[in-house]
């Protein structure tokens, strides 16, 4: 990141050097004004560049540093942790939690995305036709997204409480069996996924709705003149024309869902056992969740998570670039 | 005929919204429920006999936490805008060289999981003695909003008409003068949008609060709710009352600034 101002400076330098050749004096004058505006640009960007180095690059570098040393809490204070190379990564991959956490991350992420997207899209199509109150109701859908995650998570935790939760009392009122949503290994992951789906619907709705607004109404008019029903219109017009927006919505959803800690931690702390432990939860638990912080494996898991997030991230960037190229 | 169809849609929309907002209703309902009725079977669907015990507890115990959250939120807003607005100007209007690379880095920065940042910050703050301090938390919380802020400012400022900037230059205004008297006033809406999100994210943050500020004297409201759940699992009405109070900023922002919210959500994902 430091290379940016340095880069700009050196390019300016080389241009200045080129300008000293007696080739084109008018061009030289123009370049000099350009370079002074470049200095202004660098000046305005400087706080951000300093910020990125201090508060992004440095903590990330420290995180890598943590993952290749053996940091105990004592070594943390004294700063004499032993260098162990990739030992922490080897231990993480060999750990019995690893396959569970990977699988849970997969189920949690894809389960959340699939339902958030489907429900969000259905609601976006529903709200597309304006009717009385449609704007107000659509605005109300934003509420879950704006609440602090900890608020939503604790509300869901109480709703899914085994003995006193509203969900179980509705189920038993209809003659069902009480379900230990958060305390049974079979349902803990499903429970946190349900809460996360609920949280993600507003985001999907807003983006897909704005994508729908960009489809010209004439296309639908033409289709209905040709006798296409609502179902046919959805599959032949809405779905294909919304594909670029959908792809970006899903990828952003993936990137956000991979990171989720708050919801799961408040509802189940990743338990019982490892039943709802995702990679992010695993990392959080190792570092901060127990009385004995174990930063080195936590950092290794965290770096693994970055790699996964970046893979989807680059996919997102490619998609967005392609979309810009075509539009 | 069309009239009837429209009404049918409104009714369906109300049902969907009610289903979606049921957890929010339930939070409010539980917050007013008497302690003895919390475990009633069937549960009380409406607080006919409301109690304000929960809210009394909030105002007796949680005011410092609410104040801390407010302070952290406002600090994060100021830091985010001060850093992001000039950078957006440099990227959008001053044609910063290496701008594409910087944009790319900002997109990548948004993908880094908060838990990883928390560990890095913990290690850094541990050395600097910034653990359990408000400024430390403000800086950490601002990292959620700064990349988003720069990208949003860049997008909005690119739309400022070039003629205005040229006119300013003809009048002899330098880059700073142009920024202060043209770009900033014209970016009012984007400043509002960025501030709103920076505040909301800092207010809602749990990961940084629970890692960097866990033993602080002044803890934000999210951490306070979490501790409450841990210590006191029977008083769900008080917990839910705290949750309701913690949701107030979100509710206010939704009413006052709804169009900025929608603009912010969309700006990150869709380019027109």
Automatic annotation (TrEMBL), chain A:
Does the UniProt entry include the keyword Transmembrane helix?
Answer: yes
Q: Where is the ABC transmembrane type-1 domain?
A: 102-316
Keywords for this protein:
Cell membrane, Membrane, Transmembrane, Transmembrane helix, Transport
Any stretches that span the bilayer, and where are they? 39-58, 101-127, 139-159, 188-209, 241-258, 298-317
Designated name of the protein: Sugar ABC transporter permease
Q: Which organism is it from?
A: Isoptericola chiayiensis
Q: Which PANTHER family match?
A: BLR7065 PROTEIN, SPERMIDINE_PUTRESCINE TRANSPORT SYSTEM PERMEASE PROTEIN
Q: Which Gene3D superfamilies match?
A: MetI-like
Per its UniProt record, what PROSITE patterns does this chain match?
A: ABC_TM1
Q: Which InterPro entries does the protein's record reference?
A: MetI-like, MetI-like_sf
Q: Pfam families this protein is in?
A: BPD_transp_1
Q: Which domain of life is it from?
A: Bacteria
Q: What is its main location?
A: membrane
Protein family according to the UniProt entry: Belongs to the binding-protein-dependent transport system permease family.
> Where in or outside the cell is it found?
Cell membrane
How does the entry describe its membrane topology?
Multi-pass membrane protein
What ranges does the record give for the region Disordered, renumbered to this chain?
1-31
UniProtKB/TrEMBL annotation, chain B:
Does the record's keyword annotation contain tRNA processing? no
Q: What is its main location?
A: membrane
Membrane topology reported for the UniProt record: Multi-pass membrane protein
Q: Does the keyword Transport apply?
A: yes
Where does the ABC transmembrane type-1 domain start and stop, copy by copy? 66-257
Record-annotated membrane-spanning stretches: 7-28, 70-92, 104-125, 137-160, 181-203, 236-257
Location in the cell: Cell membrane
Q: Which Pfam families match?
A: BPD_transp_1
Q: List UniProt keywords, sorted A-Z.
A: Cell membrane, Membrane, Transmembrane, Transmembrane helix, Transport
Similarity-based family: Belongs to the binding-protein-dependent transport system permease family.
Name of the protein in its database record: Carbohydrate ABC transporter permease
Organism, per UniProt?
Answer: Isoptericola chiayiensis
Per the UniProt record, the lineage of the source organism begins with: Bacteria, Bacillati, Actinomycetota, Actinomycetes, Micrococcales
């Amino acid at each position: 990141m430091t290379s940016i101002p340095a880069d700009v400076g050196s390019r300016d330098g080389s241009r200045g050097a080129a300008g000293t050749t007696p080739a084109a004096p008018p061009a030289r004058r123009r370049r000099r004004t350009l370079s002074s505006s470049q200095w202004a640009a660098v000046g305005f960007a400087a706080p951000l560049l300093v910020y990125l180095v201090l508060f992004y690059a440095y903590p990330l570098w420290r995180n890598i540093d943590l993952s290749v040393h053996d940091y105990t809490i004592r070594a943390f204070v004294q700063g004499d942790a032993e260098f162990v190379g990739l030992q922490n990564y080897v231990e993480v991959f060999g750990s019995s939690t690893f396959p569970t956490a990977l699988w849970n991350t997969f189920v949690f992420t894809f389960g959340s995305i699939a339902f958030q997207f489907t429900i969000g899209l259905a609601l976006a199509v529903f709200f597309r036709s304006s009717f009385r109150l449609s704007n107000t109701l659509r605005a109300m859908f934003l509420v879950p997204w704006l609440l602090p995650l900890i608020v939503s998570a604790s509300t869901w935790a109480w709703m899914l409480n085994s003995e006193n939760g509203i969900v179980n009392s509705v189920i038993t009122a209809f003659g069902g069996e009480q379900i230990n949503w958060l305390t049974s290994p079979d349902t803990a992951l499903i429970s946190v996924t349900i809460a996360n789906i609920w949280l993600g619907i507003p985001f999907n709705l807003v983006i897909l709705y704005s994508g729908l607004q960009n489809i010209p109404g004439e296309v639908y008019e033409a289709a209905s003149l040709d006798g296409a029903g609502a179902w046919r219109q959805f599959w032949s017009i809405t779905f294909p024309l919304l594909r670029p927006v959908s792809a970006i919505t899903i990828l952003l959803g993936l990137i956000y869902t991979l990171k989720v800690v708050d919801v799961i931690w408040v509802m189940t702390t990743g338990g019982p056992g490892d039943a709802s432990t995702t990679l992010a939860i695993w990392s959080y638990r190792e570092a901060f969740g127990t009385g004995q912080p174990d930063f080195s494996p936590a950092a290794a898991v965290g770096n693994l998570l970055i790699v996964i997030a970046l893979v989807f991230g680059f996919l997102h960037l490619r998609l967005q670039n392609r979309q810009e190229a075509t539009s | 005929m069309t009239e009837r169809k429209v009404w049918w849609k409104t009714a369906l929309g109300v049902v969907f919204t009610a289903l979606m907002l049921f957890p929010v209703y339930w939070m409010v309902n539980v917050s007013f429920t008497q302690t003895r009725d919390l475990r009633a079977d069937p549960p009380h669907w409406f607080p006919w006999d409301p109690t304000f015990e929960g809210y009394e507890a909030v105002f007796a115990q949680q005011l410092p936490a609410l104040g801390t959250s407010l302070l952290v939120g406002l600090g994060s807003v100021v830091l985010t805008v001060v850093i992001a607005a000039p950078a957006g100007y440099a990227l959008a209007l001053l044609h910063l060289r290496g701008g594409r690379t910087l944009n790319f880095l900002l997109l990548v920065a948004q993908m880094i999981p908060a838990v990883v940042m928390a560990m890095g910050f913990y290690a850094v703050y541990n050395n600097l003695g910034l653990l359990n301090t408000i400024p430390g938390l403000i800086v950490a919380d601002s990292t959620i909003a700064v990349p988003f802020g720069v990208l949003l400012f860049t997008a909005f400022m690119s739309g400022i008409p070039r003629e205005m900037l040229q006119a300013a230059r003809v009048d002899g205004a330098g880059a700073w003068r142009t920024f202060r008297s043209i770009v900033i006033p014209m970016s009012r809406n984007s400043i509002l949008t960025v501030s709103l999100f920076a505040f909301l994210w800092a207010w809602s943050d749990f990961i940084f609060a629970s890692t960097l500020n866990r033993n602080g004297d002044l803890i934000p409201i999210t951490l306070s709710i979490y501790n409450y759940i841990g210590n006191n699992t029977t008083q769900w009405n008080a917990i839910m009352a705290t949750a309701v109070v913690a949701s107030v900023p979100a509710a206010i922002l939704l009413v006052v600034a709804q169009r900025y919210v929608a603009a912010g959500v969309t700006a990150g994902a869709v380019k027109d």
